Amino acid sequence: MIFKTVGVVGAGLMGSEIALVFALTGRKVKLYDTDSSLVDQAMQRLERVLGKGIDRGLYDPSVIDIALPRIERCEGLDHYSDCDLVIEAVFEDEAVKARVFSDLDRFVSNDCVLASNTSSISITTLASKVSESRRSRFIGTHFFSPVSRMKLVEVIPGLDTEPLIVEQVMNVCREIGKTPIEVKDVVGFAVNRLLHAMMIEATRLVEEGVATPEDIDVACRLGLGHPIGPFQLMDATQISLSLQVQEILCGAYGDRFKPRPIMKQMVGAGYNGKKSGRGWYKP
Ligand SMILES: NC(=O)c1ccc[n+]([C@@H]2O[C@H](COP(=O)([O-])OP(=O)(O)OC[C@H]3O[C@@H](n4cnc5c(N)ncnc54)[C@H](O)[C@@H]3O)[C@@H](O)[C@H]2O)c1
Question: What is the CATH number of the domain that holds 163?
Answer without folding.
Answer: 3.40.50.720
